[in-house]
Design goal:
79% of the residues lie in helices and 0% in strands. With 178 residues, it is mostly helical. The protein folds into two domains: 85 residues; 73 residues. The protein starts with a helix and ends in a 7-residue tail after the last helix.
Length: 178
């Protein structure tokens, strides 16, 4: 990865930090610099730059700076897509983090779109019964429940239970979960 790309990413993130709440800047700026420096030294690939952006997104959200959080997480998604393609675990993780912001805003439609995309990525990567999809699938089912969408919630929970059952049988084949 060329140094120019890293510098432009760093400059973009610093600009967001400067425009954010001053309390957020004081606590996050030193952390951001350390994490970006370590990331660039140990793994100078564009994909690893998404981790600090995800962390900053979650911290911005904790500071109630939703706009900055969305920008950080969307940029992390872009970097993961660039590094690994649309169907990667990094994209799936970033989508789940982005979806997390919308539960508190009760924007279940937007949250479900991000989670559904994450679940589809997980199923592409690990198969329809892959236990790696459990985290995103559980969050999606919970979203449908909170949203009051029983027509979506019931099939989601059935699928979730099937994945759990399959996972348990793979872990302990002597158990029969009929």
């Amino acid at each position: 990865m060329a140094s120019n790309s890293r510098n432009s990413i760093t400059a973009w993130a610093l600009k967001l930090l400067r425009e954010a709440d001053p309390r957020f800047c004081r606590t996050s700026m030193p952390f951001f610099h350390r994490q970006m420096k370590v990331t660039e030294e140990l793994r100078p690939s564009v994909s690893m730059l998404s981790d600090p952006l995800q962390n900053l997104g979650m911290e911005a959200f904790a500071q109630h700076d939703v706009a900055s959080a969305q920008q950080f997480l969307n940029r992390a998604i872009e970097l993961n897509v660039k590094a690994y393609g649309e169907n990667s675990s990094g994209v799936s993780n970033s989508l789940r983090m982005l979806a997390g912001m919308y539960v508190f805003q009760k924007d279940f439609a937007r949250r479900s779109r991000f989670l559904l995309r994450a679940v589809k990525i997980d199923e592409t990567l690990y198969g329809q019964d892959g236990s790696e999809a459990l985290l995103n699938l559980t969050a999606l089912c919970s979203t449908y429940d909170r949203w009051g969408k029983s027509e979506k919630s019931e099939p989601c929970h059935e699928h979730l239970l099937a994945v759990l059952k399959d996972s348990m049988v793979r872990i302990t084949p002597s158990w029969s979960l009929s």
